[in-house]
């Protein structure tokens, strides 16, 4: 991703460099004040590469959402292109509307398509509680058959590091991806003395519930017995998910390629193992993925996924 090209695309969408009167960044957002807000083309903005969504602030302000770790580079390029230095007080005194709902641009990929399907189906507000239950169940089984359960999504979450963020919390669209490697789909059947009696379905339910309780907008569970599929899932998560919970199964101990994919996308990751691998065979003592994870949870059975999701939410400031 060429940061300068992205900054140029963003600038073109907000009415050109002359239309930018001030700018700043926070964790995942590029903040821009425009001279003439009517020149902002939100469709064009949504289509700009790397842009996950935008939030309008007051009359003239707009926050453009990028994945974590991307916004600084784009901001740097934007400052160079506009010659307008960052101003931390950019939105001080911006009156009027609080943040508008987050508009999200989603480009095609299988996980996102699953997300979109669920997002549409997840519009449960006008259903009765029983209908809601039923819809969630239907959805879970539908997405399970695709080896993907649950919502996928969109943007990372930002930390409320400014005063007005604390006053006007933006509803998050942060979604978490749970990736499981080979044989995890055999939970409940597979060596129950080591992995317990809880089924894979039970684990999916834990993830789904935990994600909802922890404040995520959704959760996708993906399982594959194939290394390349796991790598694809990690790559597809880029720009879509706020964080990844991963149990690579036996690939934990062998796969440099999965580690490389994790490092490539740079998303916050937690490594989970159902069993306590530290107390097992010598060959399980190596974990390649650990180098890309900020936390490892092991030996808690399927409950480890719940902890991971809550820890991820805390890490993201949800
Ligand atoms: O498949 C698995 C499951 C595992 O990752 C766990 O969750 O405990 C531990 C791995 O060593 C093993 O190969």
UniProtKB/TrEMBL annotation:
It comes from the Bacteria. Residues 160-170 have a biased composition (Acidic residues). It catalyses: 3-dehydroquinate = 3-dehydroshikimate + H2O. Residues 150-171 are annotated as: Disordered. Residues 4-88 form the PTS EIIB type-1 domain. Its EC number is 4.2.1.10. The keyword Mitochondrion does not apply. Belongs to the type-II 3-dehydroquinase family. Homododecamer. This is 3-dehydroquinate dehydratase. It comes from Thermophilibacter provencensis.
């Amino acid at each position: 991703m060429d940061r300068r090209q992205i900054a140029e695309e963003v600038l073109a969408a907000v009415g050109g460099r002359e239309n930018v009167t001030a700018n700043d960044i926070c964790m995942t957002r590029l903040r821009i004040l425009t001279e003439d807000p009517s020149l902002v083309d939100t469709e064009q903005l949504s289509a700009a590469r790397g842009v996950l969504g935008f939030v309008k602030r007051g009359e003239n302000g707009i926050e453009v959402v990028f994945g974590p770790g991307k916004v600084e580079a784009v901001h740097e390029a934007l400052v160079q292109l506009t010659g307008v230095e960052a101003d931390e007080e950019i939105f001080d005194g911006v009156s009027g509307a609080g943040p508008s709902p987050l508009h999200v641009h989603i480009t095609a990929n299988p996980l996102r398509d699953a997300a979109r399907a669920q997002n549409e189906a997840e519009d449960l507000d006008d259903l009765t509680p029983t209908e809601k239950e039923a819809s969630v169940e239907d959805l879970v089984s539908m997405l399970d058959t695709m080896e993907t359960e649950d919502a996928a999504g969109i943007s990372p979450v930002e930390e409320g590091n400014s005063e007005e963020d604390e006053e006007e919390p933006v509803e998050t669209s942060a979604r978490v991806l749970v990736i499981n490697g080979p044989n995890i789909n055999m939970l409940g059947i597979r060596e129950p003395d080591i992995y317990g009696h809880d089924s894979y379905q039970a684990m999916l339910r834990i993830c789904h519930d935990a994600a909802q309780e922890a404040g995520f907008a959704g959760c996708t569970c993906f399982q594959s017995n194939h290394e390349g599929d796991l790598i694809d899932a990690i790559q597809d998560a880029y720009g879509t998910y706020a964080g990844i919970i991963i149990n690579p199964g036996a690939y934990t101990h062998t796969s440099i390629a999965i580690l490389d994919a994790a490092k490539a996308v740079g998303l916050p990751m937690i490594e989970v193992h159902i069993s306590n691998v530290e107390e097992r065979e010598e060959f399980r003592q190596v974990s390649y993925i650990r180098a890309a994870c900020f936390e490892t949870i092991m030996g808690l059975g399927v409950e480890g996924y719940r902890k991971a999701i809550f820890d991820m939410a805390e890490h993201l400031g949800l």
